[in-house]
Amino acid sequence: MRVVIAGAGSVGRSVARELLDKNHDVLLIDQSKEALGHEKIPGAQWLLSDACELSGLGEAHLEEADVVVAATGDDKTNLVLSLLAKTEFGVPRTVSRVNNPKNEWLFDDNWGVDVAVSTPRLMTALVEEAVEVGGLVHLMSFERGQAGLMEFTVNETSELVASRIGSISFPVDTVLVAVIRNARAFAPSPDDVIEAGDELFFLSSPDQQSALLSLLQATAK
Question: Which residues form the RCK C-terminal domain (predicted)?
Answer without folding.
Answer: 137-218
